[in-house]
Amino acid sequence: MRLLYVTDSLAVFGGIEKVLTEKVNSFIESWNYEVTILTVNQGNRTIPYPLNSQVTFVDLDVLFHLQYKYKGLVRWWKLNSLHDDFRKKLSKQLSILKPDIILCLRVEYLSDIAKVIGNKPLIFESHSTFWTSRFEHASVFRQLHTIWMNFQVRRAKAVVALTTGDAYFWRKINNSVFVIPNLISVNEKNKYSNCLSKSIIFVGRLSKQKDIDSLLKIWALVWKEHSDWILHIYGERGDVPEDIYQKLLDARNGMVFHGSTSDIHEEYRKHSILLLTSYYEPFGLVLPEAMSCGLPVVSYDCPYGPKDIITDGIDGFLIKDRNVVQFAERVCQLIEDPKLLCKMSQSAIISSQRYSAKNIIPLWKTFFGSFSK
Fold it and tell me: What's the whole-number average pLDDT of the chain?
């Protein structure tokens, strides 16, 4: 089986990048598939996660961002020329690679890919959500543009969504929608947090999506009651407002900001609880990752991932969306009840195994097999 993945780049310590590299590595190790990752604008940036040496990596060097140097009709002309360049370079690679299945991770490339692949199966992997622009309270223009872009998913042979909630909306455009959760590396060293450390961890790109402002408000309430505990924050700078980012850089009141790390599992083991405050999550990769290291998790019940991953009261807590006070109370409950913390830790380890390679990879093999009949 020859698979071709198309995405924009593999250049940051992000969820999509991590999942894709671990997934294709597993495909090769488990079934010896031939896998190519084709990026649109990788350039000379380093791939952040280990990639199997048998993976073929190709960058088309199509710089779509150059369109923004122009305005009006000139920008429109430049954008069209970039799309022409993308289709020509993609066609050339298709003739060389001869993939059996093409998998696209970015909705903005679907239309161009569909025009040049002939009768090859085109799969769209949804690593965002159908309603991302709405969740981000984007402008009406952007929301309409997103709906138009999502409508291109009708060109795909099938859609793979990460959650049942997101799949519901994709089915309004494409009749062939499958739910396959993210694969995670579930603590392969089998070393776990003992949940004795008076420290809590937050992991995520520092963006508006993650609602860092809410995190800071929650922590202020927790630290007021438990000033001997520390909140450790890990993540790259995203589009978080400058004033909030500055608060992280000037971290005080029991907070420590670390930036990003290449070995997050090692960091999970040093802490006792994970927090997630996102407005929305296509999946919420950090949740099962932390759970696999023995951390109970406290998360807003945002669309769509946390509800699929967390069993409320068993391996973590789901909090009514944006209820800062209830969130802080649940964190304090875990701090003040070591027996409950330990019990949830053990449940979290067991629960996280649902997302191990041995459970997720067979779902992909069945899925790919449906296109080879």
Answer: 93
Expressed as residue numbers, the domain containing 142 is: 2-182+356-369
Residue 187 covered by a domain: no
Nearest-angstrom CA–CA distance, 324 and 327? 5
Cβ atoms of 123 and 101 within 8 Å: the answer is: yes
Same domain, residue pair 265 and 363: no
Check whether residue 361 and residue 329 sit in a common domain: no
Would 68 be classed as within a structural domain?
yes
pLDDT exceeds 80 at position 330? yes
Non-local (6+) Cβ contacts of 322 within 8 A are 214, 300
Q: Specify whether 214 is located in the same domain as 87.
A: no
Whether cis (ω within 30° of 0) applies to the bond prior to 304 is yes
d(CA 235, CA 261): 8
Closest CA to 162 of 204, 210, 129: 129
Q: Is residue 41 part of a domain?
A: yes
Q: What is the CATH number of the domain that holds 136?
A: 3.40.50.2000
332 and 360 belong to one structural domain: no
Amino acid at 346: Q
Q: How many domains does the chain have?
A: 2
206 with 172, same domain: the answer is no
As a whole number, mean pLDDT of residues 178-200 equals: 92
Structure-token match 């420290």, residue found: 199
Nearest to 116 by CA among 138, 95, 143: 95
Please give the model's pTM, rounded to 2 decimal places.
Answer: 0.90
Query: What pLDDT, on the 0 to 100 scale, is given for residue 373?
Result: 56
Report long-range pairs for 60-65 (Cβ below 8 Å, ≥24 apart).
60/86, 60/89, 60/90, 60/93, 61/89, 62/86, 62/89, 64/40, 65/41
Q: Which two tokens stand for residue 182?
A: 């993210």
Q: Please name which of 305, 298, 301, 288 lies closest in space to residue 348, comparing C-alpha atoms.
A: 288
| Cα distances (Å, whole numbers) of residue 207 to 47, 93, 235, 333, 355 | 21, 35, 9, 28, 25
